[in-house]
TrEMBL record:
InterPro entries assigned to the protein according to its UniProt record, in alphabetical order: Fibrinogen-like_C, Fibrinogen_a/b/g_C_1, Fibrinogen_a/b/g_C_dom, Fibrinogen_C-term_domain
Protein name: Angiopoietin-4
Domain Fibrinogen C-terminal residues, every copy: 83-270
Gene: 6049695
Stored PROSITE patterns: FIBRINOGEN_C_2
Pfam families in UniProt: Fibrinogen_C (PF00147)
CDD domains: FReD
One cellular component term from this protein's GO annotations in UniProt: extracellular space
Amino acid sequence: MFVHVRELGETVLNNHRSLEERQLQTNNLVAHHQKQLTAQVDDLSFNISLVTAYSRQVLNLQSVCANHDLIRKSLERVKPEGGKNSATIESCSCAESKSSGLFRMKVPNSAGVTMSVLCELQRFGGHWLVIQQRFDGSENFTRSWSEYREGFGVVGEEFWLGLEVVHRLTKSSPHELLVELEDFGGAYKYARYASFAVAGEDQQYKLLNVGGFAGTAGDSMEKHKGMKFTTIDRDYDTNPKNCAEITKGAWWFHNCHESAEKDGKVVLTF
């Protein structure tokens, strides 16, 4: 009888230990599932945030698309009407085409170097060389000195032709300057100058001459006469800060808020 009770006690003890082990396993399994559930809740919250952000983007795109006709019409006003012409010209005044478009032009004093240029051949009597065109913000104009010297962008779209070319052109013969400004609402202004000349890099492409103003945009260039060209890495303006950094574009700044450097078209003729 004593032996039987002892064996039964060991059995109960073993069963108790087995139950404790199973309980521990169950607790561990529950804790693991809780962690998984917490992680899934976090993922769900993150995905909800993404969906919310994407929804905002969709709404913004819908707003842009709602105005696509207005934007398209604006782009059509600045897009060259003509295609690319194969003939190499001395200047836009030599272009035989009557339609504005892209041409190959010889760069003055460059041993026969040619470059792609945009000639405006219809507005204001034609024969204008476009040196800057901005209309949709697709091109970054917050650029360095070397980039403004050499030029950047895609000629015919948004671009800056290059300070060195502008200097060589205005040095080789007298030029006029025309600045055209037009917003997406169709409001148009222009400023035309009978004389325009830019010095070489040894003088930091100083604005040597600009005068004989006419137009509806107001004379915003006269006060810049004699100023050197300012970029984000070369500051020659009179403002304590760098006007190129403030306005997100380089120019012959005197002070930051007096510049004609706006979205629009800047062209030369002679």
